[in-house]
Amino acid sequence: MSRSTFFWMIMGSYQVMLLAVVWTIAWWLKPWLARRVRRIAALVVWLALNALLVSALMRIGPVGFKGGSIALVGVLYAALAALLGWAAYGVLTALRVSAYRAGMAVRALMPGLLGLWLAWGWWGAYMPTVVRYEVAIDKPMPQPLRVLLVSDLHLGLWIGKGQLAKLQRIVEAEQPDMVVIAGDVMDDLPDVYRAENMGAALAQIRAPLGVYATLGNHDNYQAVQAEIVADLNAAGVTTLRDEAQLIDGRFWLIGRRDDTEGDRLPLRQLISAEMEGSGLPLLVIDHQPTQADANLRTAADIQLSGHTHNGQLWPGTWLVGLFQQYNYGHYTVNGRHLIVSSGYGLWGVPLRIGTRAEAVMVTITGRD
Predict the structure, then answer these.
(1) Where are the domains of the chain?
(2) Nearest to 286 by CA among 349, 235, 333
(3) Does 63 have pLDDT greater than 70?
(4) End-to-end distance of the chain based on CA atoms, in angstroms?
(5) What fold, for 128-367?
(6) Average pLDDT over every residue of 115-134
(7) What would the mean pLDDT of 297-321 be, rounded to a whole number?
(8) Mean pLDDT across 248-259
(9) Model confidence over 172-183: pLDDT tens digits?
(10) What is the mean pLDDT of the chain?
(11) Which of 365, 359, 368 lies closest to 172 in space, CA to CA?
């Protein structure tokens, strides 16, 4: 399916759902407003939501492209609330409840459902949890290595100092040896990060062996990678872009450029003879899990990734597996380990429905 076909399918679906929503709004207002006023209200809603979508496509307004995401998600869940409301109306009338009483019950149900979903989405987005994995590798390790993985911070309009403070508290509670940020640190540009002085909050996140990051596709959209690297370095975060470091003499860490960068090197070329011959564990940070099969045919033991958000919002949580072979969780690939996080931040809309913001605590053990 071409991008243009997919785009017009989305736009057509949006209009169908929007018409269903505005028609339901006009019906919902029937007990209190005259027909003419109801029609005007429905028209205003239709125009406003289409204007929001058009302004988003033209990058107009304070939320820019995010406005389109807000419109699409709002209409989707409003249409779903309307559909369930009408189904409930049919059930009630079939049970011989009067049309008036059934209608008033449904009028309470529809906004209640929508409000419940939005509250659930806010909770999933802004109340992060800690997910834990224990991974055993076939290399000598005198002591376990505890790595806290976070991905997809998307620092910007929706994710800021408050969420970084929560992450700091998670790090203090978990006491990892190292923190890894697996790409999409910024939400396209570092402008809001700088304006809100988020660097001071990021600098509070510390671990004994350091804080390391690689960049993701959203850090690469407008050729400001060097600026983002400088911002991260200023906050005490070591950024690895097709680079490797020996950490504490205990293991190697390789951070890859994002898969959207056509000039990034294959992982095999980043693993030197010294690294392969050392017998030490080799960890890879690669924002997207798209190259996991190839990466884990090398000497790498573990790949840490994000990018997928695990769909972020239902029904995306059901559909993401159609587009991503490895969309969420702990996988064994070619006898090695891949961990894909659903992400600590979010994109587009400040909601997570069917997923939850997370930090991932990975405990790695080896042979004695």
Answers:
(1) 3-124, 128-367
(2) 333
(3) no
(4) 52
(5) Purple Acid Phosphatase; chain A, domain 2 (3.60.21)
(6) 97
(7) 95
(8) 96
(9) 999 999 999 999
(10) 94
(11) 359
Q: pLDDT tens across 128-157, in order?
A: 999 999 999 999 999 999 999 999 999 999
Residue type, 57: L
3-state secondary structure the chain: CCHHHHHHHHHHHHHHHHHHHHHHHHHHCCCCCCHHHHHHHHHHHHHHHHHHHHHHHCCCCCCCCHHHHHHHHHHHHHHHHHHHHHHHHHHHHHCCCCHHHHHHHHHHHHHHHHHHHHHHHHHHHHCCEEEEEEEEEEEECCCCEEEEEECCCCECCCECHHHHHHHHHHHHHHCCCEEEEECCCECCCCHHHHHCCHHHHHCCCCCCCCEEEECCHHHCCCCCHHHHHHHHHHCCEEECCCEEEEECCCEEEEECCCCCCCCCCCHHHHCCHHHHHHCCCEEEECCCHHHHHHHCCCCCCEEEECCCHHHCECCHHHHHHHHCCCCCEEEEECCEEEEECCCCCCCCCCCCECCCCEEEEEEEEEEC
Q: How many residues are listed for the chain in this entry?
A: 368
